[in-house]
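Hi V.,

Quick status before I head out on leave. The structure for the redesign project is tokenized and pasted below; the design run finished overnight.
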């Protein structure tokens, strides 16, 4: 997962940190009187020994540890790192990170590390990693959403409609979420709202039976808005917690099918509309999220097939560009392969 992105960031870290090493100088200290220390660019500090009584310590030098403390600092000019930052921006774009996000990350790193005097606390590679991590974390934390809290605090039943283009993992994500909610002791109703694709109703019926949740279905070719409406009515009558409504995959360019989606939302007034797309689709997923959002206001995204994504671009960009949070990441084909999105977890993964 994210291997290409990891390699690119690691290359940047190395290049940037060797530039810092080139420019690093010892901190100027008046106390650096020991010739040896001065020659090595460090300074001596006398430190109290940690053992011994007060009196023993007072006896002086024998009870004091002399430690050589190297303190270094650096100042980078823009010209020093222009090429390296350019390479970073290219690497981010090649990783399918949206232009606005790539520019923001480069600007943040520049602001953090260029133009001002910085002390070298740990190693130089860590300094660069921290700056990158902070920026990516900021970008990804721009919009966050706690699904469990939403379900707990919202009036029942919570109606969630899943939308997206064909084959992205809508039905599988519904099954995973139903499984997850059931484990949390929530009662779930699934609406077989894909009445269009042959076999779609059977596919979701198999999931519902395996997981042990109620399925509301009509005939193939029926009106999906009516299916979702019926599922919500059933959930109200049975005091169910959540309705998960499947819909047929559709291209955002298909005006009639997008109008049908608007009808589903008009009729069933969903509490959440979740856009489902593949992480591997990169920028395309981000663009599609925006286009779906124009038709039916989308509240958040689920990125599936993250397990197969080597670039990480969609995951880093989609919430920042669309202004809508990532809610879940799909991580495989089993019911357990779903994680609630957490920017810190993600950032740890790409620097692991
Ligand atoms: N590796 C991996 N495969 C996934 C993931 N989510 C879904 N899939 C697979 O993607 C394929 C399509 O999944 P579906 O859930 O049928 O997709 P859909 O969006 O409902 O498709 P349509 O109803 O045809 O629009 C299936 O083979 C799933 O097993 C995931 O997170 N990781
Ligand atoms: Mg489906």
């Amino acid at each position: 997962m994210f291997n290409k992105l990891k390699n690119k960031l690691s290359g940047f870290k190395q290049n940037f940190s060797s530039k810092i090493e080139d420019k690093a100088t010892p901190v100027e200290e008046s106390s650096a009187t020991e010739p040896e220390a001065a020659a090595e660019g460090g300074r001596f500090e006398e430190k109290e020994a940690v053992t011994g009584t007060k009196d023993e310590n007072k006896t002086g030098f024998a009870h004091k540890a002399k430690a050589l403390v190297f303190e270094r600092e650096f100042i980078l000019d823009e010209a020093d790192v222009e090429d390296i930052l350019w390479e970073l921006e290219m690497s981010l774009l090649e990783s399918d990170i949206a232009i606005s996000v790539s520019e923001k990350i480069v600007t943040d790193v520049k602001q953090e590390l260029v133009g001002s005097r910085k002390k070298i606390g740990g190693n130089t590679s860590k300094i660069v990693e921290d700056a990158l991590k902070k920026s990516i974390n900021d970008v990804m934390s721009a919009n966050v959403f706690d699904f469990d809290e939403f379900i707990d605090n919202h009036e029942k039943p919570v109606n969630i409609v899943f939308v997206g283009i064909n084959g992205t993992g809508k039905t599988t994500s519904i099954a995973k979420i139903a499984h997850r909610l059931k484990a949390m002791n929530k009662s779930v109703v699934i609406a077989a709202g894909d009445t269009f694709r042959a076999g779609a109703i059977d596919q979701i019926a198999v999931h519902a039976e395996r997981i042990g949740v109620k399925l509301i279905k009509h005939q193939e070719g029926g009106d999906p808005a009516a299916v979702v409406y019926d599922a919500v009515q059933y959930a109200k009558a049975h005091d169910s917690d959540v309705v998960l409504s499947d819909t047929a995959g559709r291209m955002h360019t298909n005006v009639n099918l997008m109008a049908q989606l608007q009808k589903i939302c008009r009729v069933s007034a969903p509490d959440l509309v979740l856009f489902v797309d593949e992480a591997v689709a990169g920028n395309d997923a981000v663009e599609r999220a925006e286009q779906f959002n124009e038709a039916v206001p989308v509240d958040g995204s689920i990125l599936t097939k993250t397990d197969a994504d080597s670039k990480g671009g969609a995951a880093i960009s989609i919430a920042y560009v669309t202004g809508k949070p990532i809610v879940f990441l799909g991580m495989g084909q089993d019911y357990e392969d779903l994680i609630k999105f957490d920017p810190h977890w993600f950032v740890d993964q790409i620097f692991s």
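Above is the designed sequence. The domain at 147-346 is CATH 3.40.50.300 (Rossmann fold).

G. will cover questions while I'm gone.

Best,
W.
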